[in-house]
Amino acid sequence: MYIVLLGPPGSGKGTQGKILAEKFGLAHLSTGDLFRKILENTEHPLYSHVLVVKEGKLVSDEVVNLVVENGLKSPEYDDGVVLDGFPRTVAQAEALDRILALMGKKVDLVVDFDVTTDVLLKRLLGRIICPTCKKIYHIRQKLTHCTECKVPLIKREDDNEVTIKKRFEEYKVKTAPLQDYYKTNVSQYIHLIIDDASLSPKDVQDRAFTEMVNRKLV
Ligand code: ADP
Q: Is 58's C-beta closer than 6 angstroms to any atom of ligand 1?
């Protein structure tokens, strides 16, 4: 199964992506995590192409498609993948369809997380992550270390007001048009409206699973 997670920054793609991948035994591919890894190594051949991440801008389609295409060829992705943060433009979605078609595969399901901007902002400004396993936390949990890896939690460099604003703009202009693309190009599109700030990750997960069961996807 190939699942695409759509939604603005902070909408829960990372958190839910991990849960979905574990539940269905799929690999989890986060382009954001891949790019942050590249940024840790100034000698990496793609370093200069990925620097725009720090400004909240999208990496070019050419570079993203190359990274994902190489990644998807790896055997760990053979049994299916939860794609978290890719595609983010229509050109990337078209490239993904082409890459999967060559492998005799296709996008089976798109889950679109729809969350109000107020909630997104609160989540992003308070978000802290584990640098090792990438688990996502919030400062309101008052944790200093990852509950699993025991390493100190950190704030993402792009989770500041200026960069978040740019990321929202990029989402609106370049990524939101993907909703129409997928509504016409995949048979299963789940639109999850998360309009309640108090919904826990578990509640969101339950909603997603209920939808998947209703549609006989699992
Ligand atoms: P978020 O969804 O919270 O913005 P991500 O970790 O998915 O976080 O992405 C972080 C940044 O990485 C994005 O703001 C963008 O700069 C870059 N990025 C990730 N995925 C893509 C993509 N598919 N295309 C272009 N840029 C991307």
A: yes
